[in-house]
Request: fold
Amino acid sequence: MLQTDPSSTTKELLSESSLLKDGTENSSCKNGNLDTAVTKESESREFTTPSSPKPPYCALSAGRKRFAITIITLVGAVGPLSGTMYLPVLPLLAREFGVSNTSINASVSLFMITFAFAPLIWSSFADYRGRRPIYIASLAVFIISNLLLAVLPRNFAVFMILRFFHAFGAGAVVSMGAGSVADITEPAKRGRKMSIFLLGPQCGPVFGPVIGSALGGAASWRWIPGFLALVSFVLCLVIIFCLPETLRYRAGNGRIAQEKSWLLWPPRLVSAVVAEHERGPKPPKPTLKGYWKLFSYPPIGIVSVNTAILYSTYFAISVALPYALEDRYGWTTTTVGLGYLAVGIALICGNLLGGHFNDWRRVRRVAASPGAEVEPERRLEDQIWGVLVCVAGTAMFGWFVDRSIHVAAVLVATFLAGFGVSWVFIASTAFLGECVPLQAAGAFALGNMLRNPAAAIASVVYPSLKNKIGIAWFFTGFAIFDLVAVGSAVIILRRYGPYWRKKKSQASERLAQNGRT
Reply:
């Protein structure tokens, strides 16, 4: 095993951190049960025997890596797709079940809260036991719950129960997909690859409402879970027969998988562990205390809160949009879904442009300071531009709808809000994957844990607050809160990031000294 005893492990990690050449990993995130920050050089060396040349970070061929990221991206779209497909038919569901708008919005809140906490359960095993079995198990839960939603009799209580299992099954794929991308992508290219992967989760707002409104308007809302079950079943088969294990502790750098056929036959739920000298570092065992240590590291906690605040704003707009388009602009259930195209396209544009810009800025920092450390927190500096764009779009949306300004102006406002949110998200995702590489899926799960409850709260309080203060001031308040809270957090990270890194490094040194005595 790579990790034999605490003292030797600590010494080895400290010596490895001194080899950092181009800042591709942050040594400040090491030890202390937070994570072990691994440099590019040490990550490559973990699969090397004394007499062998240094192997690549990932031995999978370029074609196989592209295939894996494509499948992971498609699977990553399933969860957000299943959430947003129901948004255009919320008024229809309220009439179908004979409940109020507040009650039907509670089903959205239930989905989002479950979708938030489920990844903590799934990813705790994914970072330790492997990605493949969790993909398969979570998709199985998702498929079964969708099939039951499609065929069971009309009953609101049953609908809510099945939406819980629906969200529980869908909750694994986004955080685990980000962990899989981190497994097979070296840090220097991780921002761009993450931006490609996030196309899946962010295409949910693009295609989900369009598909949901088309199925709900032309056929029945029950075609929505039926469609999701069919798509997920196909993806599950592809994973079973074609997607190799990527967790570096079990699969190393993928050399064994690359030497075998693309078709995994006979298929196995759990892949065999590679030889000891080829394994990646052993992740810490998943515990609630471990999650707390992750979250209590200030940069991770602040980033998680930042994205939660912005996501609640975006989701409030998503919930308000179908009611605004139906009540103020006379759109039908079928056409309401088209209204989500603007914000969906904005998410994709912000994701791709933000990912490439983030990597470009990182490369420039490395070139400007050869041999110096480039901290992961530097990826967060440019988030302020996304915050400003999101704030502008949010306030515009509220006032444009309130004054019944032309619908094109409303859609432009949703575009700006979506672009700003996506710009911030991609920087946060790249940062988390770089700061805690051994617990990447767990770090992304923590982000989901805060994002989705925030979205759930926004969807519940929207109807009552809108009736009390009006839609214009509701979203103006959201915009001001985003500017103050998120903007301040970005400044705080830039100012105190070096201090927190130094403090973490000193704690690691004290741990090493205690291990020697």
